[in-house]
Amino acid sequence: MTSPTSYQQNITEFPVRDIEKIHLPKDLEALKTILLQADKSGRPVYPISTGHNWGLGSRMPVNDADIIDLKHLNRIIEVNRELRYARVEPGVTQQQLYDYLEVHAPELMLNVTGSDSGSSILGNIIDRGSGKSGHRAEDLRELTVMLADGQLIGTGFGELQSSQGSFYKYGLGPDLTHLFTQSNYAIVTEAVVNLRVKQPFNLYLAVLDKSGLKGFLNKMAELVAQELVGYSLEIDSQNDPKIYELFEWGMDFNDKWFAWFVVTGHEEVLPAKHSVVTKALSSLVAELKTYPSSDDHSSSTPPVRVRIDRYHGQPNDHSLLATARKFGVELSGMEVNLDLYPQIPGFRCVLPVIPFTGASSDIIQYLESFSLARGLDPAISIIALNDYSLEVFVRVYFDRSDQSAISQAGTWARDLLSELKQQGIYPYRLDIENMAPYLQELKNPYTLLQCQLKNLFDPNNIIAPGRYS
User: Fold this and answer.
1) Shared domain check, 245 and 175
2) Residues 443, 379 share a domain
3) Segment 108-142, tens digit of pLDDT
4) Among candidates 123, 179, 175, which has minimal Cα distance to 458?
């Protein structure tokens, strides 16, 4: 029997939940049996895919519950090259689909995340995470979900099983797909996700002074809206572990931000786009480096190489390995699991979503000053979700063996969420500790309707109680 202990370990050092059983269904019939038994006994269950929800809870449930680990439901059911989609089960990892596509559809790629290659595709999408080419929830076409009574429901045209394949995600009538993202109404058993055609591109690294963030954001918003730059922008603070190797490479990092973005297009188009982009940014940045995707980047610093790979659709473990390495830990092995290495500092994160405008630089400054005033030096990444919104991934690191440091980081996250809410700034994802207190304060007709929907789909509240509710 699988031990609950490894499911209770988490890099964020949240207090452990009571987990009595770990269920590992190998097919939908086994999953249905587990749900029917849970519904009868009243013992809640919490589904996970691969459980790489770093910084937000890892594999732990929000409240006491048994775990349904869906890692064995890992079939790539279909890849449609003409309509550019993949139909996958929840246990399919980024690396698994990448390897499959390289053999069967090498012209196509997934919008991968900056997490590790062993993380699931569905876990991040269902929690509305971000990818290297925009908001991944927008990559969803259809879902198949299992209700607490074992009934399977398909969204979009999935329920009608169109013989033409998946090509119109809304179906007929109300669109139910996103009722099942960031919710606990059912268990997702299958998803149809967009694939993208690989294109030549230039990767850019812009180095800018902190004082130039406002002007840079304004100009980048224009370039993205004009479709000169894709939904690829990521801006990292100088102390972000993901980029510290830039400084080993000899790059100056005094009071700087480091911005990455991609311009795509055929070879004859890229030079024209490059000219427009460099002219638009020349007066706003201290330095602008260009890395064509067609070149050999074997001698480039790791942060450059891994981004080239990701924009080719190839996932990797660099973000996790670089974090560990910055703190003096060398990781190796097939699966990178931060939870299992207590010598790696833990981290707490807050994930506000803000407008894609230069005025939002004031919010970034506030996040930094709020943290520094509490003796914490935050690492901040700003990521474009689309052409009008930005995700901010702000986090603080702490010694996992120091209870006072763990407590300090927890207080920082709770207080920051509260302070931002008073300013009308809200998170687009929440960790398992803050879900209940934060959402309880948001009671309004909309959240009350959500409760009614939960009661409709799962009347005995056995699926992931407390998750975004």
Assistant:
1) no
2) no
3) 999 999 989 999 999 999 999 999 999 999 999 99
4) 179
